[in-house]
Amino acid sequence: MTGLRAIAAWPGPALIATMVAAVAAGAAAAPTLLLTVALAPLLAFVQPAREPAARHPVALAISLAVAGLLLWAHLAVLADAAALLGARRWQACVLATALALLATAVPNAERWRGVALAIGVAALVVVLIVAGTTLGRPPWAAWRAAAARPALVFGGGSPWVDDGARFVRSTTVPFLEGQRVVAVAPGTFRIVETDGARAVVRDWRLGAGDALSLRPGDTLTAEPGSRLRFEPGKRVPGAAPSGSAWADAAPRASPIDALALVVTVGLGGCALMPGLARRASVASGLALAIAAGVVSWGAYATLLAPEAGLAGSPVEALLSLSRAARWPGYGLSPSVLTALVALGLLGLFVAAAAVLRLPIAEAGARSSQLWGAVLVAAAAVAATLDGVAPWTPLAAGLGLAGAAVAAPRFAGADGARIASWPASAVGGLIGALVFVAVIAYGARLPGPLAPLRDAPVLAAAPAAWLIVKLLRREARAAR
Amino acid sequence: MAERGRRVAVLVLVLLLAVPPLATVLPGSPASVQVAGVTLLWWYAACVGPLAAVLATLVARAIR
Question: In chain A, which residues have their Cβ closer than 8 Å to the Cβ of B47?
């Protein structure tokens, strides 16, 4: 079970989509994110053997919060995919929730979770192989070709220039060159024109077929659900200006942001994969598979669809590989590849949802199945709202897990007590309180502490670690 | 895994994770150097780093 648990809990649909999108967009933090996600299973592997989690209301509350946030992130990715494919967000949420509940209710549930995981991984691998063979390039050659492009422009076959595509959430994009965009469906668009030092804001209510002309330096804000058509051959607004700029963004990342990412994802991974001890082959295979698979997917996505980040959702980059089927000489239709990606994400979600329920049972929930069902349903309701990007609940879930679960454990909380409480519960409570406080009062933090707003775990994890170290020692001395 | 090997593995993994943030502040931007059309930082994040981490973990596992 531990091997399945480790693979299913890490990385899940939200983390996969976020990593691929970061690579495809040439995000400065992409290499750090990829490396940390890939190495997290190995970090979990080298953790000291842990004792069973303490049964305590605080541990239960933390487990519920972490599972709820991560399920929300995963379901938000599935809902985004549904919105991009023309369905409703709630339809994806209902389908995924029903499958997740079914997977826990059927006889031999553990076997079915394994089947769901295998189907998910296999579907995504098939899409990646099809894209690679269709393009006829290994990933590094695709990378080189993408980096050699003089400009990242809308290509033929892109839904953004054919029929117009949909914005998943409110998105603001800057235009580097003049372009005429056409509203495919009625919507309101905000244009900010820069006239010297002066910015002029105009709100346009467009009907279907109405056009807007944008000049270099303008920005456009589109509301969720609105659809636009762009001009083929024009630069993708919001994307890197050229292939070399896309490839060279990473070395200019902020070291503070990189540190925050490493701590958030690394500690979160250690908290989510405690069962990986003695599974060196699983940890090693997972690390190498994540690194190779995500970079390959990102390189192909950039080559096939440089506009893959335009809709405001990370899942657009994952879905963009289906465009490989439009290339001549291949029998599969794009809809088959799209269905495979959706199937892969659903399979990963079902397996992840089942595994995220386990810490709730360990923490002492009387009916973990009921708690799991309530959590998935609540996360599904949250995911139907399009205002929150998947990264927000994902980073919050990983950060909270790192601060309230992993940090106390590293301080030696397992099996120890502080007064009448388990030390892990005390450390978890402090970690969670500091984490929430930094989020709540982050806007009031002075300048030097500003990075904590985006990575509360940088304050919460040391606080939890320190409390357990200090109080645990005092408790021993008092004996 | 023996305690000594575990500590060595943790140290190596943390050092490997620290490379990308450190590479961004080094003079001369060595992370931007391209090998076969791909920057060194990306070779490191996608291939060298994970492979080194796997090797280090397996070697540390053998340490008694």
Answer: 291-292
Per the CB < 8 A criterion, the answer to whether A275 and A5 are in contact is yes
Length of chain A counted residue by residue: 479
Both structure tokens of A76: 């938000």
Q: Are A54 and B25 in contact (CB under 8 A)?
A: no
List the one residue out of A57, A65, A62 whose CA is nearest residue A420: A57
Residue A32 identity (one-letter amino acid): T
Q: Would you tell me how many other CB atoms lie within 10 Å of the CB of residue A98?
A: 12
Q: What is the DSSP annotation of A450-479?
A: THHHH-THHHHHHHHHHHHHHHHHHHHHH-
Closest residue on chain B to A252 (Cα): B24
At residue A108, the 3 state secondary structure works out as coil
A160 touches chain B (CB under 8 A): no
ipTM of the complex: 0.96
Look at the pTM and tell me if it is higher than 0.90.
yes
CA atoms within 13 A on the CB side of A172: 8
Inspect the interface and report whether the beta carbons of A140 and B53 lie closer than 8 Å.
Answer: no
Under an 8 A CB cutoff, do A258 and B21 touch?
A: yes
Contact B17 A251 (CB under 8 A): no
**B16, B17, B47, best to mutate vs chain A, most A CBs in 10 Å:** B17
β-sheet bridge partners, residue A221:
A172, A190
pLDDT attached to residue A357: 86
**B44/A247 touch (CB, cutoff 8 Å), yes or no:** no
Strand B34-35 and strand A179-183: pairing? unpaired
| Nearest-angstrom CA–CA distance, A138 and B36 | 13
Strand partners, A173: A220
Enclosing H/E stretch for A173 = strand A171-174
- Interatomic CA distance for residues A250 and B31, integer angstroms: 9
Are the C-beta atoms of A299 and A143 separated by less than 8 Å? yes
Radius of gyration of chain A (CA): 23
Round to whole Å and give the CA distance between A401 and A457: 9
Residue A178 has which token pair?
């003049």
Element (H, E) at A125: helix A109-135
The C-alpha atoms of residue A264 and residue A451 are separated, in whole angstroms, by: 12
Look at residues A313, A338, A397 and name the one whose alpha carbon lies nearest to residue A77: A313
The owner of tokens 């796997």 is: B54
Residues β-bridged to residue A174 = A219
A384: tokens are 């139907």
Which amino acid type is present at position A255? P
- Type of residue found at B57: T
d(C-alpha A427, C-alpha A409), whole Å = 8
pLDDT at B7 over 70: yes
The segment with the largest mean pLDDT, out of A5-19, A40-54, A115-129, A355-369, is A115-129
A11 band by pLDDT with thresholds 50, 70 and 90: confident
**Is B13's CB within 8 Å of A46's CB?**
yes
Q: Is A318 helix (H, G, I), strand (E, B) or coil?
A: helix
**A165-166 and B34-35 as β-strands: parallel, antiparallel, unpaired?**
unpaired
The 3-state DSSP class for residue A214 equals: strand
Coil, strand or helix: which one is A25? helix
